[in-house]
Amino acid sequence: MRKPLPLLSSHPGGRSALTCRYRCGDACFHDVPNPTDNPELGAVIASALSRRTVLRAGAVVGAVGATGAFGVSSAAAGPGGSDVPGGAPGLDGRPARGLRFTPVAPNTADRVTVPQGYDQNVVIRWGEPILRGAPEFDQNRQTARAQAMQFGYNNDFLALLDLPGEPHRQVLVANHEYTDENLMFAGYDPARPTREQVEIAWAAHGLSVVVVDEDRRVGRLTPVRRHPLNRRITATTPFEVTGPAAGSPLLRTSADPTGTRVLGTLNNCAGGTTPWGTVLSAEENFNQYFANAGAVTDPQAKARLARYGMSGAASTRKWEQFDQRFDVTREPNESHRFGYIVELDPYDPESTPRKRTALGRFKHEAAQPRLTADGRPVIYMGDDERFDYLYKFVSDRRVRRGDSRAAREHNMTLLDHGTLYVARFTGDSPAAEIDGTGTLPDDGEFDGWGEWIPLASGDRSLVPGMTADEVYVFTRLAADRVGATKMDRPEDVEPSPRTGRVYVALTNNTDRGKAGKAGADEANPRNANKHGHVLELTERGDDPAATRFTWTLLLVCGDPEDPATYFAGFPKDQVSPISCPDNVTFDPHGNLWISTDGNALGSHDGLFGVAVQGRERGRVRQFLTVPVGAETCGPVVQDRRVLVAVQHPGEVDGASVENPASAWPDGPGGLVRPAVVAVWRRDGRDIGV
Ligand code: FEO
Ligand code: CA
Ligand code: CA
Question: Which parts of the sequence are annotated with region: Disordered (predicted)?
Fold first, then answer.
């Protein structure tokens, strides 16, 4: 029998209300948590063009001349292409190497649709046993104990790592962002969850580490059950808090008077991999798990909660009824212990994962390092909320090579010592030419320069009126004070391993330009931005530690027939429509791959490749689409396989276990289950060549 669902209203974009509630805590229905009046992009000044020209010249020289540390190629030009766009785009019609496949047409099929000549397998589904002693998944007999040994729910970020000493195997690491109990439990009553359901949800959050076997001929992957590296991290796994705010009174609770030990990680969205062999995972919409912020009366505490989107009474999942740490009136500092980048050593199943306070606390979307020429990691990070900011962290310490214990221990301190910055963008076109419609300004590009504003360095605050601990724990408030630029939901941020240029996915912001809200600026040039854009940032002198950069919009997304779209100047009749860019990665050829979340063009979400160099720059080509209700996550693109996480399939308003909206992945009658999919060429050759 169908259970009545709680009353949910529809999202203004392409997402279902169920996804809004369970994934983001209805972020889009609440008022924007950034009420500050930051400076908008300045009007152009007379010296602007010359300044920009100087910066750009420096950047290009740097890109060509730099030697990436640790063998990272610094080749600036793509195959057959020049480094800068221009010339005669698309003349020969041949897509860039790596993107030579027949694009998948936009569609609403309830499956993963891949290009002609490609094949796929489901690598692992929610609930599959991965640890010794784990039972087979049984939806009618699920327990928290079983779930803690099985693959978690709603896979998002994916990493595939080498497994030295075991050829034809890789280590798969997956984030499990959130649970949707309506689609997990038959007869679920959101008003009265049971303890077992709540504890299953705790165990279904977090991360999984699973070794996978590679097929020798094609890209198929299959999990190795009970491999000694297999591991589950959940909402109750002990974490160590490290970095400058560790032990701060702001982080102490009755269960942890030291402020250094937290149980669990929540809402792990995207992430990154480090050159020293660890995985970074981003705690995003943690606010939704905490109840009763509306009952807090202290004005400062209330303002801090509000800036992180916390208000109201009961939480959606009612966890506060089962563990009082989720009630902010009873444990006011517990929510301060979520919203971090966490670091996990997947090669040491006994290791304690760390929460890195030096990288700040916000709705972290992802974290991807690039090394400076002298080997210090720089981590780029987005805060995924409408009108929030882009950040980076620059470590003081150099990566130590090798796999000695001393090297590993040293490298596990890299993200505890350094400087945290937030970005301010300035456009180079007159403000009057940025009219909010997406019409290109007279100089033909949405572009300009910018600066990284330091917020704190080690134990030193660089924000007047805030202590260093406050900067690290209330990072959004610190960034407000220094005039950071309000962006259209900065999601995944990834530096190109070839050129060092940094690509920022800005998913959408339908509030841009609304009454009382910031209007269009050159870096966020469309009001009511439904489809998002992709920004390309070039650090001055190609130095990731630089405090100055130039930028340009690579893509202004949407239907190519819509004049308010831009594909780096590539002929728009030759590109795939793309909407709501979210996760980004690079293939071995240097092309950018973009997965989408919330396609507002009527098609299902998907995965797209686009060349960023040479004559093909801007030519977006769709590689796959995902089933009903799903978002495409975690893309990994290797020579012979593409790996995606199909997150929240079937999450459509009104759906439940009894009334599924999708039959994926196991066909009619099967439970809808989030899962990881590998895609490869049937002829066994490399992807897209
Ligand atoms: Fe979990 Fe911002 O996507
Ligand atoms: Ca411009
Ligand atoms: Ca995301």
Answer: 74-95
Q: DSSP for 103-145, please give it.
A: PPPP---SS-B--TTEEEEEEEETT-B-STTPPPP-TTS--HH
Q: With a cut of 70, say whether residue 84 has pLDDT above it.
A: no
Kindly provide the b/e burial profile for residues 204-222, where b requires at least 16 CB atoms within 10 angstroms of the residue's own CB.
bbbbbbbbbebbeebbbbe
Q: Is 579 helix (H, G, I), strand (E, B) or coil?
A: coil
Instruction: Specify if 520 maps to a domain.
Output: yes
Q: Is the CB of 605 under 6 A from ligand 1?
A: no
Q: At residue 473, what is the residue type?
A: V
Ligand nearest to the CA of 178: 1
329, part of any domain: no
Q: From ligand 2's centre to the CA of 446, what distance in Å? A: 4
Q: What is the pLDDT of residues 264-321, one digit of tens each?
A: 999 999 999 999 999 999 999 999 999 999 999 999 999 999 999 999 999 999 999 9
Helices (H) and strands (E) in the chain, counts: 9, 32
> Considering every ligand atom, which ligand is closest to the CA of 27?
1
Three-state DSSP state, 57: helix
* Ligand 1 neighbour 365 (Cβ under 6 A): yes
Q: Is the pTM of this model over 0.85?
A: yes
Ligand nearest to the CA of 382: 1
- 541 alpha carbon – ligand 1 mean position (Å): 31
What is the 496 CA–ligand 2 centroid distance (Å)?
Answer: 23
Q: Count the domains in the chain.
A: 1
Radius of gyration of the chain (CA): 23
**Structural domain boundaries enclosing 88:** 17-286+338-681
Question: How many angstroms separate the alpha carbon of residue 284 from the centre of ligand 1?
Answer: 7
The bound ligand whose nearest atom lies closest to the alpha carbon of 521 is: 2
Ligand 1 close to Cβ of residue 492 (< 6 A): no
Q: Which of ligand 1's atoms lies nearest the C-alpha of 491?
A: 2
Q: What is the pLDDT of residues 104-115, one digit of tens each?
A: 999 999 999 999
Distance 91 CA to ligand 3 centre (A): 35
* Helix, strand, coil % in the chain, rounded to nearest 5: 15, 30, 55
3-state SS class at 56: helix
Q: What count of other Cβ atoms lies within 10 Å of the Cβ of residue 225?
A: 15
Nearest atom in ligand 1 to 267's CA: 1
Above 50 in pLDDT, residue 604?
A: yes
- Residue 40 inside a domain? The answer is yes
Check whether the bond before 665 is cis (ω within 30° of 0): yes
- The protein residue whose alpha carbon is closest to atom 1 in ligand 1 is 269
- Between CA 471 and CA 469 the distance in angstroms is 5
Distance in Å, CA 367 to ligand 1 centroid? 12
Q: How far apart are CA 534 and CA 550, in angstroms?
A: 14
Q: Is residue 551 part of a domain?
A: yes
410 three-class SS: helix
